[in-house]
């Protein structure tokens, strides 16, 4: 890419399916083809001034969202065209905000899909994310922080990576610094913010943003991490790793109510289970039920607030437990 960049070209990590594709003909009107910057300009005018898009342009918005994400991740702040595109996207989001989606108010239009998908990358790469944040997250309640929280970890992994929960989380738009031990720097360890790692970009209806987690390779002793959507803080240990007694310091975060001991008890309960369900919804209900029984509180309201598909049967099973009414999702 360093060679190709001199000619205005870049190779991306994404690939396309093998096949025969028609090359664009220079004489074709630009409105009848796909041109990244032209369509971005048209979409910005559509969002800010109500300019109508053609059916062809609407059909290209999903590709535009993917291309915007890939383009922003080149992180080419020294390039004039990059800063111009980033400034245009930032200004557009400040004018429009993000669609406020939920179970009862999902995003169905190509416009709302694209706006939701742009929130995270624009926030991540813009030069002043704090100035943009109030336009993206409307409600940011003040919650008690913990400072310089020390964690000691022991982990042994097999052929797959393993998530290690810190018992801490970040609220939406919150950032923190983490002090990492030298033993794991540049050793394929990662910090992950958020537990929902599925990508919903291909869905026709969105009840939450399509991507709500972030991962950061551990490349230095002092790591700065954040996530527009917040979430639990995890360390991700690589396969075939064994460490003992490593200390990590999280300089500022929110304390997960039940702490790491509760997670260890839940994991222990899973070791004694048999016949795990195959479908994801049932797995999520089993986890919510197991966690609730472990801590002696009904957590279905908390998981539902995160968008989990909690079933009526699960709510009935846990109805005898006292509800968790002061969780951060309702503050």
UniProtKB/TrEMBL annotation:
It comes from Pundamilia nyererei. Gene3D superfamilies: Peptidase M60, enhancin-like domain 3. InterPro entries: M60-like_N (IPR035423), Pep_M60_3 (IPR042279), Peptidase_M60_dom (IPR031161), TCAF (IPR051244). PROSITE patterns: PEPTIDASE_M60. This is TRPM8 channel-associated factor homolog. GO terms for cellular component: plasma membrane. PANTHER family: EXPERIMENTAL AUTOIMMUNE PROSTATITIS ANTIGEN 2-RELATED, SI:CH211-210B2.2-RELATED. Residues 161-331 form the Peptidase M60 domain. GO terms for biological process: positive regulation of protein targeting to membrane. GO terms for molecular function: transmembrane transporter binding. Signal peptide: none annotated.
């Amino acid at each position: 890419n360093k060679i190709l960049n001199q000619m205005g070209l870049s190779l991306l990590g994404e690939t396309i399916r093998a096949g025969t594709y028609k090359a664009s003909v220079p004489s074709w009107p630009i409105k009848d083809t796909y041109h990244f910057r032209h369509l971005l300009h048209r979409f910005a005018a559509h969002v800010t001034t109500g300019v109508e898009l053609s059916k062809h342009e609407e059909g290209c918005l999903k590709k535009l969202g993917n291309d915007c994400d890939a383009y922003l991740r080149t992180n080419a702040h020294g390039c004039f065209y990059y800063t111009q595109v980033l400034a245009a996207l930032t200004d557009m989001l400040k004018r429009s905000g993000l669609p406020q989606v939920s179970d009862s108010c999902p995003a169905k239009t190509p416009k709302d899909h694209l706006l939701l998908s742009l929130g995270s990358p624009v926030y991540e790469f813009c030069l002043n994310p704090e100035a943009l944040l109030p336009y993206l997250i409307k409600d940011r309640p003040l919650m008690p922080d913990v400072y310089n929280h020390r964690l000691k970890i022991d982990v042994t992994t097999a052929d797959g990576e393993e998530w290690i929960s810190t018992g801490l989380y970040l609220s939406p738009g919150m950032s923190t610094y983490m002090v990492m031990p030298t033993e794991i720097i540049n050793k394929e360890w990662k910090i992950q913010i958020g537990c929902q790692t599925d990508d919903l970009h291909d869905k026709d209806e969105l009840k939450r943003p399509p991507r709500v987690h972030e991962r950061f390779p551990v490349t230095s002793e002092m790591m700065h991490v954040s996530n527009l959507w917040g979430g639990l803080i995890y360390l991700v240990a690589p396969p075939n790793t064994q460490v003992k007694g490593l200390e990590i310091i999280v300089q500022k975060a929110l304390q997960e109510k039940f702490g790491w001991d509760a997670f260890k008890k839940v994991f222990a309960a899973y070791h004694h289970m048999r016949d795990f369900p195959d479908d994801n919804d049932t797995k999520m209900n089993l986890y919510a039920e197991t966690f609730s029984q472990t801590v002696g509180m009904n957590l279905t309201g908390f998981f539902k607030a995160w968008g989990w598909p909690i079933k009526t049967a699960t709510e009935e099973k846990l109805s005898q437990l006292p509800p968790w009414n002061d969780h951060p999702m309702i503050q």
